[in-house]
TrEMBL record, chains A, B:
It comes from Micromonospora tarensis. PANTHER family: TRANSCRIPTIONAL REGULATOR, TRANSCRIPTIONAL REGULATOR, MARR FAMILY. This is Winged helix DNA-binding protein. GO terms for molecular function: DNA binding. Keywords: DNA-binding. Residues 8-139 form the HTH marR-type domain. SMART domains: HTH_MARR (SM00347). Coiled coil: none annotated. PROSITE patterns: HTH_MARR_2.
Length: 175, 175
DNA sequence: AACTGATCGTCAGCTACGCTGATGATCAGT
DNA sequence: ACTGATCATCAGCGTAGCTGACGATCAGTT
């Protein structure tokens, strides 16, 4: 048995390597827009309404401190604006500018091109299937999409258990 | 139209975020083995035969300089050995130790546990489908997995073309 | 045998990322 | 007015990956 096959055939491994490759392509596609991947990610959510940086952090999954830098960049390029919330002056409400809206739209299009290229090896149906499975999995894992009762805890325990208490499973006696 | 839906529904986006989540779990699962994700990745390929660090770099997709550090770590833990090739004394042939073999096997098992947990939200069939699509896509993109006759060149051109010529697509006049 | 160009491993140094912890400003409740 | 919590921000840490350079070694040429 070749162990490389063992690991190459692991779904998680495939996921990671493919994400790497896809990421490279996407970054490349976004280059001319002066946007990094995470910038677009944030920008896309900004357009949904007047959100605070905190909100954006949670929605995008980025760290709150990272968000500062991202917004800085977007603001420097004139894609978004910072405004203190009138009701809660601690918050910075982030709003997209017309420039930002334009760039977002163009960048998303460019991204789709890149994505299409990346997924080209798959047929129409396979692509749809892939998208569906990924969506399901993402919905199940993203804390943002959880119904409040099941809550993060339940799922974490449910699936993490395999990882955390693997003292029952494969153990490693730290020599 | 909410643009967050636009980007959240992008397959590439899902791929990236899921890879992030999966990666965190896998790293966590490997913790007790004193292995990082990339360590295991390398270790798995080491077992395939006596490969040079150069070979490993290409196979795993890691940088040649990164490989030095990875091998250093693996060697420090006694999982692999460095030996100069007798036929080409520039090369370092990396071979796995019995300790390394044991750890690899255990770690792979732990990884499967974690993976199962992560994929739990999907049904049996969905999981299989997902794995299949990912495999296909990976095979199409990874230069290493190409059948030797078609050769790296052919498929690279075949699939890269769609991504490379996106200059035909939406362009951005760098003002 | 000497010379040239290429290859391999290694190292120093740079850049970028994400995170922790602390700080000042602000809010909500008492 | 006081206390505790929340928000944005900043400094700093550790890590990852990459570039560029270097010595050692190989293959081919003369």
């Amino acid at each position: 048995m070749r162990s490389s096959e063992t690991i190459s055939s692991a779904t998680g491994y495939l996921l990671l390597r493919l994400a790497n490759l896809a990421s490279a392509r996407m970054e490349e596609a976004l280059l001319p827009f002066r946007l990094r991947g995470r910038d677009l990610r944030v920008l896309a959510f900004v357009q949904d309404g007047e959100l605070s940086q905190r909100d954006l952090s949670q929605q995008t999954g980025l760290d709150r401190t990272t968000m500062v830098a991202v917004i800085d960049g977007l603001e420097r390029n004139g894609y978004v604006r910072r405004e203190r919330s009138p009701t809660d002056r601690r918050k910075q409400l982030i709003s997209v500018t017309t420039d930002g809206r334009t760039v977002l739209s163009e960048a998303l299009t460019a991204l789709r091109w890149a994505e299409d290229g990346f997924l080209a090896p798959l047929g129409e149906d396979e692509r749809r299937q892939l998208h569906r499975q990924l969506s399901l999995l993402y919905a199940a894992h993203d804390p943002r999409c959880q119904t409040d009762d099941t809550s993060e805890l339940g799922l974490l325990l449910g699936s993490d258990a395999a990882g955390t208490r693997h003292s029952e499973g494969p153990t490693r006696h730290t020599t």
